[in-house]
Specification:
Layout: H1 2-10, H2 13-24, E1 27-28, H3 29-36, H4 40-52, E2 56-61, E3 64-69, H5 71-85, E4 96-97, E5 103-104, H6 132-139
Antiparallel strand pairs: 1-3, 2-3, 4-5
Helix pairs in contact: 2-4, 3-4
Length: about 150
């Protein structure tokens, strides 16, 4: 996935700071090193990663190369993040909790396992109807099953 490479490039604090500096204006390696108080070699290595991800480009100006941000790539990343916030909810498979803590199924509201089951899709019906095999799949062992011997509403 292309956006993963962008996230990886931005995951480093120094690269993120480089990008922020470059958003204020085009700068050469020496100016970036001076502002970040790191070596020019370190700046070059970080710029290499940002260039590889397509986030920055360099332009030769006389003796020095000045770097600038590819803002379209950042905008694309912003769109990816925006799309994540608009994903459709997953289909109701297994039990899902309502805001009030009640559990609902695809067809009707009913109490299934009002404990905090880690794998509610492994349960069938009422918690007291769980077979030992289901309990083991859901919780690891019967002694760890929070529903055993309890009535939840």
């Amino acid at each position: 996935m292309e956006s993963i490479a962008l996230f990886k490039a931005l995951a480093d604090k120094t690269r993120f700071e480089l990008l922020k500096l470059l958003l204020t204006g085009d700068l050469c390696v020496g100016a970036l090193a001076y502002r970040l108080k790191i070596s020019e070699a370190a700046v070059s290595q970080h710029l290499k990663q940002l260039r590889k991800a397509g986030l920055v480009k360099g332009e030769k100006r006389g003796y020095w190369t000045h770097y600038f941000v590819e803002k379209n790539r950042l905008n694309d990343l912003g769109k990816v993040l925006d799309e994540l916030t608009h994903l459709a909810p997953r289909p109701a498979t297994g039990c899902l909790r309502n805001i009030d803590g009640k559990i609902r199924t695809k067809k009707e509201e009913k109490t299934m396992c009002a404990s905090k089951c880690q794998r509610p899709e492994k349960l069938k019906g009422n918690p007291k109807e769980c077979t030992p095999k289901q309990i083991e799949k859901c919780h690891g062992s019967k002694k760890d099953h929070p529903c055993v011997g309890k009535t939840k509403k």
